Amino acid sequence: MASLLQPDRVVYLVRGEKKIRAPLSQLYFCRYCSELRSLECVSHEVDSHYCPSCLENMPSAEAKLKKNRCANCFDCPCCMHTLSTRATNIPAPLPDDPTKTAMKKAYYLACGFCRWTSRDVGMADKSVASGGWQEPENPHTQRINKLIEYYQQLAHREKQDRDRKKMARRRQCMPLAFSEKYGLGTRLQRQRPGAPISSLSGLSLKEGEEQKDITIEPAPALDEVEPLPEDCYSRPISLPEVTTLRQRLLQPDFQPAGASQLHPRHKHLLMKRSLRCRKCEHNLSKPEFNPTSIKFKIQLVAVSYIPEVRIMSIPNLRNMKESQVLLTLTNPVENITHVTLAPCEDDDPDDINSTAKVVVPGKQLVLAGKDAAAEYDELAEPQDFQDDPDVVAFRKSNKIGFFIKVIPQKEEDADVTVSFKIRHDFRNLAAPVRPSEEGGAAAAPAPAESIWLTHHVELRLGPLAP
Amino acid sequence: MADKPNPQKSVKIAAGAVVCVESEIRGDVTIGPRTVVHPKARIIAEAGPIVIGEGNLIEEQALIINGYPENITPESEVEPKTMTIGMNNVFEVGCVSQALKIGDNNVIESKADVGRNVILTSGCIIGAFCQVNTCEVIPENTVIYGSGCMRRVQTERPQDHRSSSDRLHTRRVSPPGPEEVQRRA
């Protein structure tokens, strides 16, 4: 059954700041710490920005300037799909001879999904294919910019005061630029709620410039507000004319209420992120810089280091009766791995979800290494592992099928869950090579040491048979 | 087919229409000139005749069926209602149309499902995979799109599918990105 292969059937426990249970395909493995990591125990960093439709790369500084939007591509304001430029021919008088008309190209934007066109909001057709489309100007831009400048200056001043206090306390001669260098990005200065706005201070004026005092006028309070139109309650609403909340909030500057004022906006950029282990600061995942490439420069995903347990078949489970469940173990690495399974202890703090007792095979299971050329190599002798037929059901290249016995404990159980510990040896090829005792010009690399790793695995086997 | 008194079981195809022999046409169907019926299209007139106008385009695996409503068995006496389809409509691949009255210049996109009690006026576009089985008249120039069958009114008529001069000149200018679907030429 394909539903047995669903990723959330088998979850591994990650012991980080929070205990997270996630399928192995969503976990990372830090081979320097030799521990599983999930998305919540790594730090995410932005690698590069790119536009999802034209796949154009953009350096972060430029992206910040353009407010994280692409310069060429537009989004349909109605359905948020990407707009495409279409051309039609319109007769237009020739500049030389007004009496004759020639066919000139006119370009307009159209959405392929909801059939919105730029002519719907009254935007005139442009004569240039790209670059002619402008976003409407916000009437409040000037005021907002002034406010931002004022608060930037305020933040800068606050930071200077803070640094002066720190310097006075430490009584050391630290240059003022020291705190500037370690701005955002290191863990030391993560934003704490309630702290003064230090994010804006990074964009503030440089040290040498004189700081002009920017004053802002407070917003004037009006006594009289524009009254509502008289037919506000009696006029029938034409629903196609009213914008939906989503359409409205995607344009927070204008928030138009009528569909005839929905102008297209530039497309949002997406970003590629890299992940870093919080304990040892090594990169766990680093994508390629090129937006068209989906490969990774560094890809330390858990499925390529940890043996994966999968459910193969479940018999009818009955309350308090022992049944045999067939599981498979796959070895992702190229050397032979030895795996031992152990049931959870009675007072195990990790064992909170299991609703059934499990009897795991006590013997050590041996998994063959993953051999990429195995299917082409006809002369390879099958390795003889002498499997116990009660324990091992089948063996196929780097995978074995084995039985566990499950005794459901709860009556009327909608989802029988079992958990056990899996202990396997891991050869750490990334560990630094220890120099040999004699030294010597060409020291032979010491064989990588194997360490034993233990993981807590939980399986969801589904409901009891009726 | 059950024996009914005076059945007109003929299929009348006007001159200038292109009807592929692999299509399945059953019952009393009239097809107007310049209409194109692609192979594997099915036009089935069970509970009454179907009259198809000029210039329509019925693509592969489209199903136009004038069938019995679900709660009425074929044995009981039901007056046969004629299904009328106007001019220049497009029935894209895999759509199902049971609407009794369809006007002009409509587009029923792929895998859309139009129920029996819907009346399409003109210039309507029923988006791909949208199921419209309400009991209403769809106003002119309505576009139904999206998984929630959102609606909006468009100000432009859909492009005339037959006009070749338009097709040559109305083409995509920006290079199609990886997620854009090729529009059929």
Give a written overview of the molecule.
The complex is a heterodimer of chains A (466) and B (185). In chain A, 21% of the residues are buried. Helices cover 10% and strands 30% of the residues of chain A. Chain A is mostly beta strands. A six-stranded antiparallel β-sheet of chain A has the order 2-1-22-21-16-18, with no helix packed on it. In chain A, strands 6-5-11-12-13 form a five-stranded antiparallel β-sheet. In chain A, strands 14, 15, 17, 19 and 20 form a five-stranded antiparallel β-sheet that branches. In chain A, strand 1 and strand 2 (19-22) form a beta hairpin. Chain A has helices at residues 60-65, 141-170, 177-181, 245-249; strands at residues 10-15, 19-22, 28-30, 35-37, 42-50, 57-58, 69-75, 83-93, 101-111, 265-268, 270-277, 283-287, 296-299, 308-313, 323-330, 337-343, 356-359, 365-367, 392-396, 399-408, 417-427, 450-460. Chain B is mainly beta and 185 residues long. The longest helix of chain B has 6 residues, at 164-169. Classes of the chains: A mainly beta (466), B mainly beta (185). Chains A and B meet through strand 8 and strand 9 of A and strand 20 and strand 21 of B. Chain A: InterPro entries: DCTN4.
Task: Chart the SSEs and their pairings.
The complex is a heterodimer of chains A (466) and B (185).
Chain A: E1 10-15, E2 19-22, E3 28-30, E4 35-37, E5 42-50, E6 57-58, H1 60-65, E7 69-75, E8 83-93, E9 101-111, H2 141-170, H3 177-181, H4 245-249, E10 265-268, E11 270-277, E12 283-287, E13 296-299, E14 308-313, E15 323-330, E16 337-343, E17 356-359, E18 365-367, E19 392-396, E20 399-408, E21 417-427, E22 450-460
Antiparallel strand pairs in A: 1-2, 1-22, 3-4, 5-6, 5-11, 7-10, 8-9, 11-12, 12-13, 14-15, 15-20, 16-18, 16-21, 17-20, 19-20, 21-22
Chain B: E1 11-13, E2 18-19, E3 24-26, E4 29-31, E5 36-37, E6 42-45, E7 50-52, E8 57-58, E9 63-66, E10 83-85, E11 90-91, E12 96-97, E13 101-102, E14 107-108, E15 113-114, E16 119-120, E17 125-126, E18 131-132, E19 137-138, E20 142-145, E21 150-153, H1 164-169
Parallel strand pairs in B: 1-4, 2-5, 3-6, 4-7, 5-8, 6-9, 7-10, 8-11, 9-12, 10-13, 11-14, 12-15, 13-16, 14-17, 15-18, 16-19, 17-20
Antiparallel strand pairs in B: 20-21
